[in-house]
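Budget justification aside, the reviewers requested a transparent look at the raw inputs and outputs of the sequence design task funded under Objective 1. We therefore reproduce one unedited record. The lines immediately below are the structure tokens for a 293-residue chain.
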């Protein structure tokens, strides 16, 4: 199987050969800041291996999240809680290798798994170093409040950080399920406070998952140094992220309501990813009222 084959029947689509000159500049933190400031939507997608990261890159995906969702979509776990740092290191390396094979330009975010940053700032630094040395450009961690101190510690040591608020899957047991967060004045105010603390701590990006569209749009307007990336959070965020298996319609479980199956109208995976990139850039995905928010 050769993902860079020019076989038009390839389910991946055609990739540029590894020897082709790079036509895009590598995505960098300044470039992401520029996009945030200018209002150009940032497109993020999860990928967990070399082939899919290369295809996503060729499709124009700017930021690839090696999410701990791999526990559910690759390992068959019932939640992300069982994912280990070693597993995240392995998949981060695979993703980065795939990008190198095709001179990819995407920005790679490695997800710090449950238990790998909870003990102390020093433990978080050691865990982040493992993912950065595997080739990640940035690490992501979940939660507000106590995590601000951890974020500041990492950022001060030159590690770009993406925060994650709203539905934080690593705490699904404490949250009582995969449900909308930040509903109501009190919960909304708390989520906003955490978001501002994380921005002040230096988080450059922030995933907002399953948050009312109005709340995420308001927050997006308030945060000037931190780009919000929504998933099930309406269209008012600075960018969007989806789990790859969801947008390709190959999720083993029930697809969340906010997901669109981009494979339905596409002939191959790359074209499905291209359609996703286009829809996010032009603002036709997501729709705001999917949860009646
Ligand atoms: O692990 C993951 O894929 C994520 C996304 C759902 C944002 O955190």
């Amino acid at each position: 199987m050769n993902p860079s084959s020019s076989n038009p029947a390839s389910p991946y689509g055609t990739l540029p050969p590894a020897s082709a000159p790079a036509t895009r500049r590598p995505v960098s933190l300044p470039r992401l800041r520029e996009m945030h400031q200018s209002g150009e939507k940032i497109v993020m997608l999860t990928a967990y291996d070399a082939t899919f990261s290369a295809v996503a890159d060729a499709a124009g995906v700017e930021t690839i999240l090696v999410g701990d969702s791999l526990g559910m979509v690759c390992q068959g776990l019932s939640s992300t809680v069982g994912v280990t740092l070693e597993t995240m290191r392995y998949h981060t390396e695979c993703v980065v290798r795939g990008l190198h094979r095709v001179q990819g330009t995407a920005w790679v975010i490695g997800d710090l798994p449950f238990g790998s940053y909870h003990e102390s700032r020093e433990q978080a630094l050691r865990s982040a170093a493992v993912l950065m040395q595997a080739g990640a450009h940035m690490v992501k961690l979940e939660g507000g409040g106590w995590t601000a101190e951890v974020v500041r510690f990492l950022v001060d040591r030159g590690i770009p950080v993406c925060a994650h608020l709203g539905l934080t899957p690593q705490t699904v047991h404490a949250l009582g399920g995969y449900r909308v967060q930040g509903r109501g004045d009190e919960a909304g105010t708390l989520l906003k406070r955490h978001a501002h603390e994380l921005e002040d701590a230096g988080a450059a990006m922030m995933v907002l998952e399953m948050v009312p569209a109005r709340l995420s749009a308001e927050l997006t307007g308030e945060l000037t140094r931190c780009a919000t990336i929504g998933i099930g959070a309406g269209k008012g965020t600075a960018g969007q992220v989806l789990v790859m298996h969801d947008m390709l319609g190959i999720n083993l479980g029930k697809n969340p309501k906010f997901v669109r199956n981009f494979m339905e109208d596409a002939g191959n995976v790359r074209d499905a990813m291209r359609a996703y990139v286009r829809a996010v850039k032009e603002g036709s995905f997501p729709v705001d009222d999917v949860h009646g928010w």
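The first strand starts at residue 42 and ends at 46. Residues 85-101 form the longest helix (17 residues). Computational costs for records of this kind are itemized in the attached budget.
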